[in-house]
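Q: Got a minute? One more chain.
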Amino acid sequence: MEKRRLAILGSTGSIGKQALDVVSQHSDLFQVELLSANNSAELLIEQAIKYDVNSVVICNEDRYKEVADALQPHGIKVFCGMESACELVCGDNIDMVLTALVGFCGLRPTIAAINAGKPIALANKETLVAGGSIVMELAREKQVPILPVDSEHSAIFQCLMGAAGNRISKIHLTASGGPFRTWTREQMAGATRSDALKHPQWNMGAKITIDSATMMNKGFEMIEARWLFDTKPSDIEIVVHPQSIIHSMVEFEDGAVIAQMGHPDMREPIQFALSFPERLSLNNRKLNFAELGSLTFEKPDFEKFPCLQLAFDAIAKGGNIPCAMNAANEAAVAAFLHDRISYFQIGEVVGKIMDSTPFLAKPTVEDILETNDESYVKAGELIASHSR
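A: Always. Here it is, folded:
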């Protein structure tokens, strides 16, 4: 494997930090050229110096001077804003782009990188939720590989490597069930921010952890799987697997099922995407089957987790509706994290925005950007009325 020069967008988040740990374990195979962060200036500075990067982007312009002053003595170039990120990922010094940004903001730099012919290691769910048809069509046109970083999609991808071209009949997308799996609906109605952030298996950022608590995250992953693997939503089945050992499964026409297993550790799928098709050594905990005990599986409860149903409804309607769903969810989760709305009001806000969004069957990139902005604003207005 030749050395790969990486751009890591969202380097100060959970995925970005774990990606840099992978780089540290294989510094002979990976060189970090570009890092980006939104607000975490201090950590971005520390990462840039440690990994001797070429450039960084700080998206919050209020933190630009702080970053520029700290990195100028090290000869590291500092840029500001998402437009800069979109330009820099296209540079000749970039071999692969890891999009580890959280939220809709990941869409534009991903499209820019695809247009420049850069392979994508995709950890940003919202890119395919909001613009799946556009992104995948562009990737096919430019012949750019999109390598999944989410543990579930990496698992499906790895299972399909053993398919030998045989057609699959079903994808089994596993879910931990989140912190509220055993709670009653009545208990969940009073769930606090602190309750929702106590994920039983994974260590993730706040937004993704809340999405896991509502199971919207699993709805997003269903939509991702639909686009990544060109599969009908009706052929994707959600199964709750609390131990999070089986990361997903693929079923074939003869009933045979291939599963990918491992401890909950995002470094494995991150590394596999960055090094594909090669597998590298990784300093992680390996499975001991004698110690595992039992693995259990359950059906998801769509009444307790209405956001999961909303995701199926959104992809069934298609067009720009998944984008509206995503924007409303971003606004609602932010409001919940600031104690402005209750847990179940997240789904109520999302459902109302989906219902009120003018439908566009074949949206352009501009339509998606407009739908996102309008839906976020409308969701904010709805949240404000709840908060009064």
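A: The mean pLDDT is 94.
Q: Perfect, thanks.
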